[in-house]
Write a structure and sequence with these properties.
The protein has 9 helices and 12 strands. By secondary structure, the protein is of the alpha/beta class.
C-alpha cells in the first residue's frame, strides 16, 4: 500500500492496489481496490495487545460498499476487540484502519467525527429506562450530532414505522420484549445515516424465541444496501445472509471468502474443527 498525504490535509488517501488479501465478491459490486471503487472499511495489519496478551495479530481485510460481512470466531478470538478498535473505543498498537478512504487511526483525525460516521449496536441494548422509545432513538442525534428536534423525530418515526414499531414510540424499555429493545437500539444507530454499521453479538443476550425478529431486521437492512460488519454466533444466519465470512482464529484472519467457500468447502483443519463444533459433529 502506498500512502500519500496532501498538503495541509489531516487525512491520507489510499493509492495503488491496496491490500493483497484473498477476497470473494459474490455480489459483483465494484472491488474497493479498483480505480473506480473504494472500500467502506479497510483494515491493514491491525494489532492490539493488553500487556503480554496479543489479541489481534495483524488483521487485514476490506469491506465493499453495500456488503454484509459476518465476523466469526470462537470466544477469545478477538472479535469484540476488533469491533472496539474499528469504533475507536480501543487504540490499536500497530496497523491502520480506513473508513471510506480516510485513515481514522491517524492521530490528527478527530475520533468523535470518525465515530459519528459509524453506527454501533452491542449485545446489551443500553436504552435509557426513564425515556420512551422516541426519546431513546432521537437523543444522540439531537444532543451529539446537532440534528433539529422536529427533523429527528420525523426520521425516528419513519424508521420505527419501517420495522413495525411506530406504535411503540411512547412505550418505555421495560414495556418491550428483548427483541423489540434490540430493534430500537438498531434504529437509534441508523439515525445519522452511518457509512458503516457494526453489530456486535446483537442476539447473544436474547431469549432464543426473540432472535428471529432481530435477524429479520438485519436482513431488511441488507436488502436496503446497508454496509454491515456483524460479529455473530448465529452460524445459519451468517451462512444465509452474509455476502462474505471473515473467520478469526487466535487473533488472525484464518478465512476470508463467501459463506460457501469458508463454511462448506474450506480444507483448513482449524476451520473445519471450528464449524464442526457448531454442527455437533
Amino acid at each position: 500500500m502506498q500512502l500519500q498525504q496532501g498538503p495541509g490535509q489531516g487525512q491520507r488517501e489510499i493509492q495503488g492496489q491496496g491490500l493483497q488479501t484473498s477476497q470473494h465478491n459474490p455480489t459483483g459490486r465494484t472491488s474497493p481496490t479498483s480505480p473506480t471503487g473504494k472500500a467502506v472499511l479497510r483494515l491493514d495489519s491491525v494489532r492490539k495487545s493488553y500487556g503480554s496478551n496479543h489479541v489481534l495479530k495483524g488483521v487485514s481485510f476490506d469491506i465493499n460498499p453495500h456488503e454484509v460481512v459476518a465476523l466469526l470466531g470462537p470466544s477469545g478470538s478477538g472479535k469484540s476487540t476488533l469491533m472496539k478498535c474499528i469504533n475507536l473505543l480501543e487504540q490499536v498498537n500497530d496497523g491502520q484502519i480506513w473508513l471510506a478512504g480516510t485513515e481514522i487511526t491517524d492521530p490528527r483525525i478527530n475520533p468523535d467525527h470518525s465515530r459519528s460516521r459509524i453506527g454501533v449496536v452491542f449485545q446489551q441494548f443500553n436504552l435509557f429506562p426513564h425515556m420512551n422509545v422516541l426519546r431513546n432513538v432521537t437523543l444522540g442525534a439531537i444532543k451529539v450530532h446537532g440534528m433539529n428536534k422536529d427533523q429527528a423525530q420525523d426520521k425516528a418515526l419513519e424508521l420505527l414505522d419501517r420495522i413495525g414499531m411506530k406504535q411503540k414510540a411512547s412505550a418505555y424499555p421495560d414495556q418491550l420484549s428483548g427483541g423489540q429493545q434490540q430493534r430500537v437500539a438498531i434504529v437509534r444507530s441508523l439515525m445519522t445515516d452511518p457509512e458503516l454499521l457494526l453489530l456486535d453479538e446483537i442476539t447473544s443476550a436474547l431469549d432464543p424465541m426473540l432472535v428471529g425478529e432481530v435477524l429479520e431486521m438485519v436482513t431488511e437492512l441488507k436488502d436496503r444496501g446497508t454496509t454491515i460488519l456483524m460479529a455473530t454466533h448465529e452460524m445459519g444466519f451468517a451462512h444465509d445472509a452474509a455476502d462474505r465470512i471473515v473467520l478469526l482464529l487466535n487473533g488472525q484472519v484464518a478465512e476470508n471468502g463467501s459463506p460457501q467457500q469458508v463454511m462448506d468447502e474450506s480444507q483448513n483443519p482449524q476451520t473445519k474443527e471450528f464449524f464442526s463444533h457448531f454442527r455437533g459433529l
